Amino acid sequence: MSEPGRNIKDVRKRRGLTQGELASASGVSLSLIRKLEQGDRQSARLETLRKLAVALRVPTMRLSQRGNEEGPIVGTEERWHAVRNVVERPPVEPETDDDRPTVAGVRDSLERVIPLYADHKFADLSEMLPPLLRDAEALGEEGRAVRVRVLQLAGGALVHTRQFDSAELALQRALDEVADRMEGAASINTRCWLLLRQGRLDEALDLAVRWADEIEPRMSRATPAELSTWGLLLLRVSASAVRNSQKGQADQALRLAKGVAATLGREYAPENELLRMFGPTTVRLKAAEHASVTDRPDLVIRLSERVPRSAIKASKSSVSRHALDVAYAHAKMRHYTEAMERLTALHKASPEWLPNQSYARTVLKRVVDGRRTLTPEMRDMANAIHLEL
Known about the structure:
By secondary structure, this protein is mainly alpha-helical. The protein has 20 helices and no strands.
């Protein structure tokens, strides 16, 4: 079987579609789909692959090649099946009745769901998202803006839980419906994070640079929303560049972000969206992250000590990531007790977030390798974050 044929069959089955249903949804003949999947045809025109990809709701290149990134932890795919099903399957024509969703109702539901995301309550979020996604999809043009926000939320949750194909699709669907560049930048910011988690550093850097250049505001007239959106993209530029061994570009982007944060003067999120928080504290935490990436554990700890605990109003994701940076810094400096204390506190604060972090397993493995004996605390933590000892 050809690579495209194998991928088409794999994705189609994951979507729960028959060959006939895929033919109807894509406009590609049933006979051609059968030939591709059976290996009677070794290739297809790009336009044909694009039609199939649109129906299957995947990027076109997904049908011609597969990624090798680390996938979700055990149990995640089952728990999030309903979410992926709504995101991935072709849209269902809403029924005509008196109980149609309204824009106001979907918006209110979204505002109740956002705190679950912000607090890393992924189990509850996986149950709340499917009906919210279905209701948002049933809205007409008047519901476009709220539908974009729901898709952005779903995309972020799927990135958190390492379900990258579905996350990419949700974010692309959101981007397809945006009405202006500021809305688009919010989806792009999460898309850059997705690429970073997949290790696609060149793509992440190119995308972040392009959009940061595109939305750069005039500082004398910029609104807080424009500044925070630009600042977040600058942080993506810096994070991509520093991981791609382009320290000069990383430092420059971080300096720009620091200046934007100083102009804001506080942590800010457009329309109080906790998912898009940016400000001086966020930049400080990201500076420590850069020190970790460039192997300066002593600087990570010094920078951490300069962030007053009372001043932390950044997103929980940024704060949690920073805690991992500090734990790793302690582990690298052979401060194993301090590293375990940080991991234990982080697991207590974000028990559903930490197991999704391969970084957490890296930290614990360094601690375990540095100790002569395994303590019960280490074994418990290994079980919690799915590290095989």
